[in-house]
Design goal:
The chain contains 32 helices and 10 strands. The protein folds into 4 domains: about 180 residues, no CATH class; about 180 residues, no CATH class; about 130 residues, no CATH class; about 160 residues, Yope Regulator, Chain: A. The longest helix is centred in the last third of the chain and has 32 residues. It has a 5-stranded antiparallel beta sheet. By secondary structure, the protein is α+β, with helices and mostly antiparallel strands.
């Protein structure tokens, strides 16, 4: 789509041509046409395959020049532009216009050319832009308009090609060498339209394609190309096969090219999916209030990676395989899976592929199949979730207000406006004054460091700035007047310290576990041979493939990390950049899992290990997980590590494992390693 940047570029090219030493022309690009059916007594119509944007922009520029000429009293020039380049004076209706955009743009274009009506959107903006440029250029120069007109008509060049319909599309794919690169939605549109007879395209556009595009049109009338392209990609992934964003069009083309598809049937199918898509994204209510409510909770988590899976479930409902209650239950499971893993510090990097692989088009009960799938992918149970929730630094990690608001709403809060206006408040403030230091006692600094950002110390308040570090007995009076339940109940406390935060955190954790659905039972891995054994592959070869895949993933997603070589082994040693300290990666088969180890090889590094072990809060926060500490019986080797348990060693688990390694290695090198170096330097100086 041509926008202001392209208009400016075109205008700069025109101005360059006015220079006294400029004698060449400016190449505008290709125009590719397919002729329509010839009708006796009528001009032959040509349907554009490529070049719509550049030709429409050129036409609007001529309208702007015509309008400025009229305002300047140059009626002869204005009439010449109008009659020779914009309209056929003796023709009526659509035949009156020399260029006529597709249906959704026709109203604005006709209003611009005729001067009747109130055009809006990108076309109206383009008209305003070029009118201003022409006025600036010819101010006080009576010959300036004619000179610009001659230049536009004589020195802006197009290369035109008229092709048969069956050849036009292949030519079109290779011609987009100028202007704005076409996105997937543009390419898909042209692909579909090339399978519609030229003389049926206007009707197909207005009756079928325009209603589809309308679903992705912004309030100012512009088509959201990115959203439209994401929709096509999500539809393509409904069958459970992951599609890279860059492969959206080629996948669409490959799927339909050889099928002899009906464009009309395809458009109808896409429109049905688009209706579901609007409900899934929260842009309109679903036919089921239960599903609408469930989607609202899921969309609070900005979980667009679930859309292909949800589209598949909506289709299964439309086909009568499942009902709305089952869809709502599936949405609730996804919501619980995402927030529970977030609270338990599990990576979300693999969700795009994970949720697509969750689609089981053959399942007679797709919701039950989804439940099993999520359980196998690490769905934290209540015990793990509640323990993690109470100690999770929620304020630093995100979703803080979403979590607190959701708990409040589940208690029955009805005043949405009050919740929307509320801010997150730290009950024990972020900055401790003397009063708070005295109230918290001798361990004030430790309590503050550990509990400041945890849920037990967070609430919602409209008085955030007024109360921020006041003593608790002052805050308590304001809390008493709050219409937010989780805040008002704080007035029941006589003081505020570690025990109160711990108790409140545990209570909120139980409420959260009831809100965000967890698995009905803890997952027990089946007692069967590992995947590599079932495939007749030894453990070394299996691990080698795992490490090679990780290397490829890190090269693409974390190019800043140090490189390493793979080998057929359980561990891979990495360069740490810290003397006497080493890093290792581990791939475990029984029980399945991965780990990141930090080894303290020499006595010079042991004091650092002792320091971190005695007070791990900071290094835990740096890595976003809790380090486990250990040493050999003789004390000559010490370590700390973090682990990611996996439900199996199956390759379907690898993307999540790679994402976890990527996230943790980035934190290890960017945050933990500098901490280790500082501790080593401090020890050496001492």
């Amino acid at each position: 789509r041509w926008d202001r940047a392209q208009w400016q570029k075109l205008w700069s090219s025109i101005i360059d041509l006015t220079g006294p030493t400029k004698t060449g022309n400016h190449f505008m690009g290709f125009l590719v046409f397919v002729p329509g059916l010839a009708q006796p007594g009528q001009h032959t119509r040509f349907h554009m395959v490529d070049g719509q944007q550049r030709l429409t922009t050129s036409s609007i520029m001529l309208v702007a020049l015509r309008n400025v000429a009229r305002s300047a009293g140059q009626a002869e020039l204005a009439d010449e532009i109008n009659d020779d380049y914009l309209v056929h004076g003796r023709k009526k209706g659509e035949e009156h216009f020399r260029l006529l955009p597709k249906a959704k743009d026709q109203k604005n274009y006709v209003a611009i050319v005729t001067g009747k009506g109130e055009p809006s959107g990108r076309m109206a903006d383009a008209l305003d832009y070029f009118e201003e440029r022409f006025k600036e250029r010819v101010d006080g120069d009576s010959n300036g308009l004619r000179a610009i007109f001659d230049l536009v008509c004589q020195r802006l060049e197009f290369m035109c090609a008229t092709l048969e319909a069956e050849n036009a599309y292949n030519i079109f794919k290779s011609l987009n060498s100028t202007g704005v690169p076409l996105g997937p939605s543009d390419l898909i549109r042209n692909f579909v339209f090339m399978h519609v007879k030229p003389d049926d395209q206007d009707e197909f556009d207005s009756d079928r394609w325009a209603p589809l595009e309308a679903r992705f049109t912004t309030d100012d009338g512009r088509l959201d190309e990115e959203a439209f392209s994401r929709f096509f990609r999500d539809v393509l992934m409904m069958d459970g096969k992951y599609v890279q964003p860059k492969d959206t069009f080629t996948t669409f083309e490959a799927r339909y090219e050889a099928t002899g598809f009906s464009p009309q049937a395809l458009a109808d199918e896409l429109l049905a999916h688009a209706r579901h898509y609007a409900a899934i994204g929260g842009k309109q209510a679903d036919t089921s209030p239960e599903v609408t409510a469930a989607l609202a909770g899921l969309n609070d988590l900005e979980s667009s990676t679930t859309y292909p899976l949800l589209l598949s479930l909506f289709k299964r409902r439309a086909d009568g395989v499942i009902d709305s209650a089952a869809v709502a239950r599936a949405i609730s499971m996804l919501r619980g899976f995402i927030i529970r893993r977030f609270i338990c510090s599990e990576s979300s990097r693999g969700y795009g592929q994970m949720f697509v692989r969750a689609i089981d088009t053959a399942a007679t009960d797709p919701v039950a199949a989804l439940e099993t799938y999520l359980l196998q992918r690490g769905w934290p149970d209540d015990a793990r979730f509640e323990a993690a929730f109470a100690s999770f630094p929620l304020y630093q990690r995100g979703y803080t207000k979403t979590v607190l608001e959701t708990i409040e709403r589940e208690r029955g809060h009805k005043e949405q406006a009050a919740l929307a206006a509320a801010q997150v408040e730290h009950i024990m403030p972020q900055t401790l004054n003397d009063g708070w230091l005295a109230d918290l006692g001798a361990d004030a600094k430790r309590v503050h460091a550990e509990w400041l950002h945890r849920p037990g110390n967070l609430t919602l308040s409209a008085y955030n700035q007024e109360l921020w570090n006041h003593p608790f007995n002052v805050k308590r009076q304001e809390y008493l007047n709050s219409n937010i339940g989780i805040t008002r109940e704080l007035a029941n406390q006589s003081g505020w310290g570690e025990q109160q935060m711990k108790d409140r955190g545990a209570a909120l954790a139980k409420e959260a576990a009831a809100i965000w659905t967890g698995p009905k039972v803890a997952y027990v891995q089946p007692k069967e041979k590992a995947t590599h054994e079932a495939a007749g592959e030894d453990g070394g070869a299996f691990r080698l493939r795992f490490w090679n895949g990780l290397i490829d993933f890190l090269a693409q997603e974390h190019a800043e990390l140090p490189q390493f070589d793979s080998r057929a082994a359980m561990t891979i040693r990495l360069q740490s950049g810290v003397r006497h300290i080493g890093f290792e990666l581990r791939h475990l088969l029984r029980p399945a899992g991965i780990a990141l180890d930090v080894y303290f090889w020499r006595e010079a590094s042991f004091p650092v290990w002792e320091t971190l072990k005695s007070d791990p809060a900071e290094v835990n926060e740096l890595i976003g997980s809790e380090w486990a500490f250990g040493q050999t019986d003789d004390g000559k080797l010490r370590w700390m590590n973090i682990k990611l348990p996996m439900t199996s060693s199956d390759e379907s688990e690898w993307p999540a494992a790679y994402a976890w390694f990527g996230d943790k290695l980035a934190l290890l090198y960017n945050a933990v390693a500098p901490k280790l170096r500082d501790e080593m330097s401090a020890g050496a100086a001492a």
